[in-house]
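Q: My hope is that you can spare some time for a protein that puzzles me. Underneath my words sits a plain record pairing an amino acid chain with its backbone structure tokens. Those tokens are not coordinates but codes from a learned vocabulary of shapes. Thank you; the sequence and its tokens follow:
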Amino acid sequence: MANGGYGGLVERGHAAGTNSLDAGCAAGTVNDRQNCVLADFTRSCEKIHVRDLAQKFMLAFIPLFVAIDPIGLVALFIGLGARADAARRQREGMFGVFTGFAVSIGFIFLGKIIFRALGITVADFQVAGGLILLGLAVRELLDLHGDSRYSGVDFGIVPLGMPMIAGPALLTSLLVLTDAVGVVVTLVALAVNLALVEIGFRNAERFTRCMGKTGMNGVSKLISLLLAAIAVSLIRRGWSAH
């Protein structure tokens, strides 16, 4: 056969005046039926692979989105940058996102090594991170934190980058997700979430005008409640693993 294989099927489909491999096979332009079966099998595998990657991405994206809380971060960003001008506020926002990303990357690749060196397990970290996260969520829900805690203009690295972005919820989620869906998918989901955070920082004042401070606070409270639920789940899973 002069034009065999998967590429030949495509060429013959186009030669028959069709735009698809299915039409080319159906039109009787392919004599080798085994090539048609192989082509269908290859396309089916590609579709399954793409669907599997999409499912893994969503499994990683949603927990990281809830752990990072981009909407709540925008409200905190506006409060922290109240005394800074617009240019300085955006620069500190970039510092915060970069710090959170760097800490997360380091934790993904070095977290388990540190755990082994200290003799602790992922279950221990889940319990500890869950307890800290539960405290943070309760503090946000009950408004137990003071607004004057960080009143300067140098807030990008601390507290915005860490612990607000790269906090216990995010770091714990990263360790669990790298085992569940893989490092690459986790990194992509992390990058997309941090990109959303940066977009939120750049449009913080616009979001405030659209939603109002009451709306922003309401959404932030809802996400804090979800964080509390995740914290309880982390504690339960860590305790069960023991």
